[in-house]
Design brief:
- The structure holds two protein chains of two kinds.
- By secondary structure, chain A is of the alpha+beta class.
- Chain A contains 16 helices and 27 strands.
- In chain A, α5 (about 170-180) packs across α10 and α13 (about 565-580) runs antiparallel to α14 (about 585-610).
- Chain A is elongated and about 110 Å long.
- Chain B folds into two domains: about 1-75; about 105-155, Head domain of nucleotide exchange factor GrpE (Nucleotide Exchange Factor Grpe, Chain A, domain 2), CATH 2.30.22.
- Chain B contains two helices and six strands; from the N terminus they run ααββββββ.
- Chain B has a three-stranded antiparallel beta sheet with strand order 1-4-5. A three-stranded mixed beta sheet of chain B has the order 2-6-3, with no helix packed on it.
- In chain B, α1 (about 1-75) runs antiparallel to α2.
- The chains are: A alpha+beta, B alpha+beta.
Chain lengths: ~650, ~160
């Protein structure tokens, strides 16, 4: 089974993905980032570098740093648009004999195909290192408005890099594929692609057989970088006004402003306000200067509103070109990192009055779609099912509601949590609540509520004949076992006498979907109230346990503890006894803590007094904390 | 005749049951293997996740470390002997030791050749030794050998 790649070969950034364990995923390059700048450079040290390494030396080596070569691939040098772009470039270009474009890197001239293939070679090496095998089959994406010559050139770049290029597909089509939109009925899909440096809009006619491009439009120089620049300018202006210093002239300050602006933009995606805090950003006559400003989301939105407006206008024009109204669009797909800005999402949503598809990371969605397409084509070639499409023949059910048992104080203690895949089993050890308890009752419960009474009882049984022992001593092992058919068997076993009792629950586990939903909703609605009740019961149980332990300890230590020491703890125990049945959670907790502290002090004194040969006394409530108790019949009634 | 038929039926049943048994046994083994593989992979993924979380945390901590060292640089020489300032500088040292112990390494060497794997050029000046780093404008960092921020540098043209 050959590994494949989907490559989103972008003007500024290239991304690539594959199918990992049946899931399409964007992959990281060697430098640990999903984003690889589409830049090739010939360094002053005479080395050829690609990606982020090329970007890191770009400022001082502009003539030998080739970026945005995608704008020239498969195009004629004399094209008016090419000529316009060429004017913005810092590197040398010339016309080739065949009329195409050539760029100068070091001492040599290269075609855009060759430069693109250098980027793709890096991608190939990084992906092979990551996936641990050679990769041949790829699908590469290109803009929807690429003509045949540009597509052929892109394919040639892939082949020079050593790939077997299965297909060149449109970027918006790849995005639609990632969402599986082609699987359903015929639809009009609008792909809104707001990247770092460019904005593109494409309208697709998607049906189960084909995906056809109806219209495309775009702004070649509009992107996320413009949003950052607006924040940077705002900071520079504000600081100039407040401190009279131009931060734009200081290399380090400008670098810090860039990083802060990008961070602020990201933070405003989730927060309503962000702080831009750059201490020691500059220094004046009176010492260091600090920059500290707050930027709210609404301020940021009003500053950048015009950029989003520009993109929406382009959408309108493209709809008009396709002779469509916005109501005709069935699905909207968001692509590009800039669509992570909440205001962008909001405006798109408001314009179409429809929720856009945005669950897949918009920066990765194109390479993910390309990877899916590459896997489908490769699987077809190899005569197998695409990875990730293979469904297990064996379907396993999941438990819709939690199963548990009733424990001391009427609490529902979970044994198997909801959403666990069956068949499954779980065993837990419980103990008794009173001295010499002869039997335990197992009440099997279903539901999400904290208290047994609020859940559904599936059945009860009694395990009797427990040998006499103090509370908390017997060990009753309770096992819940659900088989593949959903039949539940609950078994209780006394470890001392090996006595076993069990119950089988058939059929009644299967509630209707509505009943399950109703029970889940009730649990959600009552969650806070249930927690309060449960906390109170637990506090009461702890108090009771402590009273029992203190009295037992003092009785056993008769003669070893002075009356003087005993008196305060007995008084506190009496106070605790008085309030333990009240509903005052805080008071029960406080009094329990007081008693606990006093008995620990007594324990410590006893320990000191005893010789080293004597055993160390256990802390009072350790044992109880680790075991849970099952009430017997009478005890249960008392508690209810 | 009847006996023979019965034998045939039995043989057929045994054949079906054997086939079924093999099928079940194989899918059971396969599932068990899948589970073990899944568990191992999940272990690796957890390791990756821990690394990623650490990396994310350091990415946010680094600008604060920058600020602390900028603050230190702005303190007057005379003031550095002030006990309160001394105490603050000791805290800075503690912070530096902590990140170092957690695997964070500084990239701040000058006098070496520019290397795009660990450096990013912000400025260049005229001079003799071409490509040599003459100033670290902003320190870079490596976490367990991987560059999480390149050093921003000034070099000779």
């Amino acid at each position: 089974m050959a590994k494949i790649l989907g490559i989103d070969l972008g003007t500024a950034i290239t991304k690539f993905g594959s199918i990992i364990d049946g899931e399409p995923k964007a992959l990281e390059n060697r430098e640990g980032s999903i984003l690889t700048p589409s830049i090739v450079a010939y360094t002053k040290g005479g080395e050829r570098v690609v990606g982020i390494l090329a970007q890191r030396q770009a400022i001082t080596n502009p003539k030998n740093t080739i970026s945005a070569v995608k704008r020239f691939i498969g195009r004629k040098y004399k094209d008016a648009e090419v000529q316009k772009e060429l004017k913005l470039l810092p590197y040398e270009t010339k016309e080739r004999k065949d009329g195409g474009v050539e760029v100068k890197l070091g001492d040599k001239w290269y075609t855009p195909i060759e430069i693109s293939s250098m980027i793709l070679q890096k991608i190939k090496a990084d992906a092979e290192e990551k996936l641990g095998e050679e990769i041949k089959n790829v699908v590469i994406t290109c803009p929807a408005n690429f003509d045949d010559s540009q597509r052929k050139a892109t394919k040639a770049a892939g082949e020079i890099a050593g790939f077997n290029v299965l297909r060149i597909i449109n970027e918006p089509t790849a995005a639609a594929l990632a969402y599986g939109l082609q699987k359903t009925e015929q639809k009009k899909v609008l792909v809104y692609d707001f990247g770092g440096g460019t904005f593109d809009v494409t309208i697709l006619d998607s049906s189960p057989d084909t995906v056809e491009v109806i219209a495309t439009g775009g702004e070649p120089h509009l992107g996320g970088n413009d949003f950052d620049q607006i924040i940077i300018n705002w900071l520079i202006e504000k600081f100039k006004k407040d401190e009279g210093i131009n931060l734009g002239e200081d290399v380090l300050a400008l670098q810090r402003l860039k990083e802060a602006a990008e961070r602020a933009k990201q933070e405003l995606s989730s927060a309503q306000e962000t702080e831009i805090n750059l201490p020691f950003v500059s220094s004046g006559e009176n010492g260091p200067k600090h920059l500290y400003y707050k930027l709210s989301r609404s301020e940021f939105n009003s500053m950048t509103d015009s950029l989003i407006e520009k993109s929406i206008k382009r959408v309108e024009a493209t709809l008009k070109e396709a002779d469509l109204k916005k109501e005709n669009i069935d699905e909207i797909v968001l692509v590009g990192g800039t669509t992570l800005i909440p205001a962008v999402r909001e405006q798109v949503k408001n314009y179409f009055n429809k929720e856009p598809n945005k669950s897949i990371n918009p920066e990765e969605v194109v390479c993910i779609g390309a990877a899916i397409q590459a896997e489908i084509l490769t699987a077809k070639e190899e005569g197998r099912a695409p990875e990730g499409d293979i469904k297990s023949v064996l379907l396993l059910d999941v438990l819709p509601l939690t199963l548990g048992i009733e424990t001391l104080g009427g609490v529902s203690t979970p044994m198997i949590q909801k959403n666990t895949t069956v068949p499954t089993a779980n065993t837990q050890v419980f103990s008794t609540a009173v001295d010499n308890q002869p039997s335990v009752e197992i009440n099997v419960l279903q539901g999400e509520r904290s208290l047994a009474n609020d859940n559904r009882s599936l059945g009860k049984f009694v395990l009797s004949g427990l040998p006499p022992a103090g509370r908390g001593v017997p060990q009753v092992e309770v096992t819940f076992d659900i088989d593949a058919s959903g039949i539940l068997t609950v078994t209780a076993k006394d470890k001392a006498s090996n006595k076993v009792q069990s119950i089988r629950v058939e059929g009644s586990l299967g509630l209707s979907d509505e009943e399950i939903e109703k029970m889940k909703k009730e649990a959600e609605l009552n969650a806070t109230e249930d927690k309060k009740k449960r906390d109170l019961i637990e506090a009461k149980n702890n108090a009771e346990n402590l009273i029992y332990t203190v009295e037992k300890t003092l009785k056993e230590a008769e003669g070893k503890v002075s009356e003087e020491d005993k008196k305060p703890v007995l008084e506190k125990v009496e106070e605790l006894k008085k309030i333990k049945d009240s509903d005052n959670l805080e008071e029960i907790k406080t009094k329990t803590d007081e008693v606990s502290t006093l008995i620990q002090q007594i324990g410590a004194k006893m320990y000191q007094a005893n010789s080293a040969s004597e055993e160390k006394k256990e802390e009072p409530n350790v044992e109880e904390a680790e075991t849970e108790e099952v009430k017997d019949n009478e005890e249960g009634k008392e508690n209810k | 005749m009847k006996k023979k038929n019965e034998e045939k039926d039995f043989e057929k049943e045994i054949e079906t049951l054997t086939k079924e048994r093999d099928e079940y046994l194989n899918s059971w083994k396969r599932d068990l293997a899948n589970y073990i593989n899944y568990k191992n992979k999940e272990g690796e993924r957890t390791q990756d996740l821990i690394f990623l979380l650490k990396e994310n945390m350091f990415e946010r901590l680094i600008p604060i470390l920058d600020n602390v060292s900028l603050a230190e640089r702005s303190i007057n020489k005379d003031l550095k002997e002030d006990p309160s300032v001394k105490g603050l500088l000791m805290i800075e040292k503690q912070l530096e030791d902590f990140v170092k112990n957690e695997g964070l390494e500084e990239i701040n060497e000058i006098g070496i050749k520019f290397n795009p794997e660990i450096h990013e050029i912000l400025e260049e000046v005229e001079g003799d030794k071409s490509q040599e780093i003459i100033e670290i404008i902003q320190k870079g960092y490596k976490l367990n050998g991987r560059v999480i921020r390149p050093a921003k540098v000034k070099i000779i043209k």
